Amino acid sequence: MHEQEILTEFKQPSTRERAFRKLVSAYQERVYWHVRKIVITHDDADDVTQEVFIKVYKHLDEFKENSQLFTWIYRIATNEALNQLKRIKRRTALSIDDVHKELSNHLTHGQLINGDEIQMKLQKAVLKLPEKQRLVFNMKYFDDLKYEEIAEITGTSVGALKASFHLAVKKVEEELNAD
């Protein structure tokens, strides 16, 4: 179903619930994996994904349609995932570097992530990136988003995103070649 059809159905009280179910069905998996790459653990990603769709439901009437619906949802998902990282930091009284080490530990010992050794090394290298570079790297490399879409999601210029991605790729390559 096209975004416009979902939006049109959502505006009608009689089809609102059906439209929302279609929206969740269309975007839930992509949102979950986007969030999962940021917060790492399944439980946190699951919680954040639920929060994202609660916010989408509450605020969809306010969507201005000056961007794609998907981009708007991704922006909400990104912000919610970053907020979750901040909550983890406050809850555990750890520095953000310690939070990243803890997340890296989840990568290695978590039951719900399995993958070959190079994938694990890649994920650990990505976790070492500064937050902004990690977001850009994940959205460009894993989610295959265009710079223009990432710019809308993050509120950053395309030029700055290209620079961040370039730096992130260099750091990831250095980390992967360090072994």
From TrEMBL:
It comes from the Bacteria. Transmembrane segments: none annotated. Signal peptide: none annotated. Residues 120-171 form the RNA polymerase sigma factor 70 region 4 type domain. Residues 23-90 form the RNA polymerase sigma-70 region domain. Keywords: DNA-binding, DNA-directed RNA polymerase, Sigma factor, Transcription, Transcription regulation. SUPFAM superfamilies: Sigma2 domain of RNA polymerase sigma factors (SSF88946), Sigma3 and sigma4 domains of RNA polymerase sigma factors (SSF88659). GO terms for cellular component: DNA-directed RNA polymerase complex. Pfam families: Sigma70_r2, Sigma70_r4_2. Belongs to the sigma-70 factor family. ECF subfamily. This is RNA polymerase sigma factor. It comes from Roseivirga thermotolerans. The lineage of its organism: Bacteria, Pseudomonadati, Bacteroidota, Cytophagia, Cytophagales.
